[in-house]
Structures are given as C-alpha cells and as structure tokens.
Inverse folding.
C-alpha cells in the first residue's frame, strides 16, 4: 500500500515568516495531492490540492508544488499568521477509488 | 447548503456494547468515506461506500466493524462489542463523483469506551 511521510513533524515559525512542509509518497499511481488543515478538536479542512498534470498551484498565501518524478509534494505558507497554527496533513490518492492515505501530520505553531 | 453531518458528536459506550455512528453526506454527494483518527495521529482510511454498495473496505477490521450506505438515509458505521482500543475520533467525508475527488469532512464522532 501507499507509504506517506511528512517532514517536519513540528514546525515553529515567527509571525510573518514562511513555512514549508514536505510530503513523500511511495505509490507512483497517485495523481491527486491535497493538503488538509486541522485545528484542535475540529474536522480536517481541505486548503489546497493539486492534480498530477500541473507542477504548482497557488491560492493567496498558500501554494503547493509537486515533483512527481521524485514522488513528493510540498505545502508553502507565506506571511504566516497566528491563525495558521494547526496540524497540517498531506493525503495523496489515486484517480480511482478515492481512498486518501494521510501522512502523520505536521504541527505548525506561529508565534506572534 | 449544509455540510457533511455526523451524529452523535460524542458517544460513550461500555466495553461490550454496540456503537452506531451516522453520517449524512453533503447534498448531491453520493460517495462516503469513513476514517478513524487516534489521538496525535493522522487519519486512517476504513471504508468507501456508494449508495447500497461497499466499494473498498480494505481499511476496516474484519471483525466487529461494519458499514452501510442505504438507498435512503445516512451512512452507518457500526462497531459491535466495543473495546477500549476503539476509542477514537471517527470522521466521515463525502465527495460528489470520482472525477471531482475533493473530500469534505464532517465534524466527527468522538467515541469513548469505558
């Protein structure tokens, strides 16, 4: 099955700095690459996703980059704010089946 | 447009009892997924259903766990003879179709087995 790893497991940044989280996966058939944000006690929320036919996607302060050859994709958050503090999960999946395999999560703390 | 709904939000069961978790997908969504999350861990896929069909149950334990998504009504995840290790947050997600693929999560049911 799919093996998914996220690095780092915790990330502490100063408000206004950038944060980068990397996700590596093993299944070359994966072609859907979402990132979810989960605040304490809340549901995971989809914040950005990318398909395998593009290398980068940006939405305001958030971007995702994909390197399908190397089987990794990354989440970039610029100009971090305290409300960005949460746990972030990558969850690659295939076209068929839609089963998502979640990484172990990255706890991001943005210090004011 | 209501989001994915789950009930109950919190459920306490004694060891050996049955737990029933309900999930109503977003309007227009015909695909439902169940995931389990242990404290401080990521979500683990359990089962994927469409109306009246189980598509993929590769993540669901073979014993005591079952899931259904009837033609009418919510999807149900049933855990029989619960044990302490079943204590977790159970999230369901729904998506409209395979082409779209985005999954939107409900608020979860936190099951505590005493």
């Amino acid at each position: 099955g799919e093996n998914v790893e996220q690095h780092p497991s915790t990330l502490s940044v100063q408000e206004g700095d950038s944060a980068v989280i990397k996700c590596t996966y093993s299944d070359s058939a994966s072609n859907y690459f979402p990132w979810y944000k989960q605040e304490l006690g809340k549901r995971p929320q989809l914040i950005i996703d990318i398909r395998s036919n593009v290398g980068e996607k940006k939405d305001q302060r958030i971007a995702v980059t994909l390197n399908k050859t190397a089987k990794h994709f990354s989440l970039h958050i610029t100009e971090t704010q305290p409300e960005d503090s949460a746990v972030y999960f990558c969850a690659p999946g295939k076209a068929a089946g839609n089963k998502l395999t979640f990484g172990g999560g990255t706890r991001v703390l943005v210090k004011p | 447009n209501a989001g994915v709904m789950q009930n109950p939000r919190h459920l306490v069961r004694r060891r050996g009892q049955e737990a029933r978790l309900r999930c109503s997908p977003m309007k227009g969504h015909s695909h439902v997924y169940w995931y389990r999350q242990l404290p401080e861990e990521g979500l683990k896929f359990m089962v994927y259903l469409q109306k009246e069909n189980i598509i993929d149950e590769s993540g669901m334990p073979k014993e005591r766990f079952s899931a259904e998504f009837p033609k009418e009504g919510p999807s149900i995840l049933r855990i029989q003879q619960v044990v302490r290790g079943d204590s977790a947050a159970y999230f369901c997600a729904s998506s409209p179709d395979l082409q779209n693929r985005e999954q939107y999560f409900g608020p979860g049911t936190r099951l505590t087995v005493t």
